[in-house]
Amino acid sequence: MKTQEFKAVIVDDEADGREITALLLSALFPCIEIIDKCGSVSAGARSIATHAPDLIFLDVKMGDGSGFDLLKRLPNTQPLVIFITAYDNFAIKAIKTSAFDYILKPIDEDEFRDTVNKAIGRLESRGLEKRNSVSKLDVKKVGLPNLTGFSFVDAQSIVRCEADGHYTTIYFANSPKMVVTKILSHFEDELTRFGFFRVHNKHLVNLNFIKSYSKGKGGRYITMADGSDLEVATRKKGELLKVISLGEF
After folding, report:
1. Confidence class for position 1, pLDDT limits 50, 70, 90
2. Cα 92 to the chain's mean position, in Å?
3. Helix 109-135 vs helix 15-28: angle between axes, to the nearest 10 degrees?
4. 134 pLDDT higher than 70
5. CATH of the domain at 85
């Protein structure tokens, strides 16, 4: 069984600390993609709100605040938080803030491996529970927040979704586009079961509306039915072509 891929953000005000954590993750856990490394609480909060990672590796004391300050600013995405710090007197507070675990610097490789393996197990269990729950549903509409509540639209009327910071722009086949106050990862979770695929950090597309795939010196692109040309991330190319060729949508 193929291991699921997960996204991680590292927040540490010491460059060496960020790099050591990143090197260990790259060497030991190819299933974890490091999508950002941040050197402050403010940068970490912005990155987490944008990328909605599954895992956060977080220092305690930083120049513009603490890791605990950052936790108070997290969006409601429920990432697993692993503190990595030189201070051993914050362990109890970390656990009380619902952190997944606490690792002391200098990092012991075995401890790091065991902790991250446990975190991956927790994330995989969450994913299984979500898939089992979704499989019981036959609802083909998605709710889009508006000023007074929600608009419910047919999922197959959506051509693509594009990330724009804390917002997502929804493009429809036969209606004007709509900007909603949800990050793209929210719609990735909602729409994957309807044949949507995230081809890039910025783009979630309805596979039924892809017209062509092309590659060149400038990179790889898909052309959608609405005429848009969208970049395909290198790491997504193989999976995208496999899903399309097998008709798994």
Report:
1. very low
2. 28
3. 60
4. no
5. 3.40.50.2300
Please tell me the distance from the alpha carbon of residue 95 to that of residue 68, in angstroms, as a whole number: 11
Query: Does 236 lie in the same domain as 119?
Result: no
User: Six-digit token pair at 81?
Assistant: 């938080």
Both tokens of 141, joined, read 């509409």
What is the value of pTM for the model shown?
A: 0.52
- Please, are residues 59 and 99 in contact by the beta-carbon 8 Å criterion? no
**Upper half-sphere CA count for residue 140 (Cβ side, 13 Å):** 5
Contact by Cβ (8 Å): 6, 56: no
pLDDT digits (tens, 9 = 90+) for 151-189: 899 999 999 999 998 899 999 999 999 999 889 998 998
Q: How many CB atoms lie within 10 A of CB 200?
A: 20
C-beta of residue 65 within 8 angstroms of C-beta of residue 215: no
- Would 1 be classed as within a structural domain? no
Contact between 171 and 159 under an 8 Å Cβ cutoff? The reply is: yes
Residue at token pair 């998605």: 142
Same domain, 124 and 60: yes
